[in-house]
Amino acid sequence: MNNDKIELTQDDYEMSKYIYKILLSQPTIIASWGYQSPVVIKLGLRFKVNGFKHQGRVEIRYNEGADLFDIYLINDDNSLKDSLVGIYVDELLRVIDENVEMVLNYNERVNQEYNIINYDQKTI
Questions:
Q1: C-beta of residue 38 within 8 angstroms of C-beta of residue 66
Q2: How large is the C-alpha radius of gyration of the chain?
Q3: pLDDT at 112 over 70
Q4: pLDDT digits (tens, 9 = 90+) for 10-32
Q5: DSSP labels for 66-98?
Q6: Are the C-beta atoms of residues 72 and 59 closer than 8 Å to each other?
Q7: Model pTM above 0.70
């Protein structure tokens, strides 16, 4: 294994900005993932998440040959949990959300996790 540090190019920084801009188009969704610590990687972006389904890191890499994106879910121990390849740009947020955060009975799970009380909307 080559341990040499990979030098990032201007293209890498531009691609990470592009991906970040896509994520920021839905700030509530990325906030629900516990999105933090973004890092520029080769033709992509890596960040930490703390979702209901996945806790660890997410890497989004642009696949130049296919003109699509690949998503890698990485556990805290650096093991690969899952790879999702060939994702269209307009599917990025949905695919990440489905694999990081979205669970069955999502609203109930959020209420339970954050101890939210739902009041009956009827007249008191």
A1: no
A2: 17
A3: no
A4: 999 999 999 999 999 999 999 98
A5: TTEEEEEEE-TTS-EEEEEEEE-GGGHHHHHHH
A6: yes
A7: yes
Q: Are 46 and 58 in contact (CB under 8 A)?
A: yes
pLDDT in tens, 56-84: 999 999 999 999 999 999 999 999 999 99
Contact 40, 32 (CB under 8 A): no
DSSP string, 9-69: -HHHHHHHHHHHHHHHTSHHHHHHTT-EEEEEETTEEEEEEE-SS-EEEEEEEEETTTTEE
Tokens of 9: 């190019």
Cα dihedral angle (84, 27, 29, 72), rounded to 10 degrees? 20
Q: Which of 28, 113, 34, 49 is nearest to 60 (CA)?
A: 49
The residue extents of the domains of the chain are 10-113
Which two three-digit tokens encode residue 107? 């609203």
Distances (CA, A) of 38 to 2, 25, 34, 77: 24, 16, 12, 18
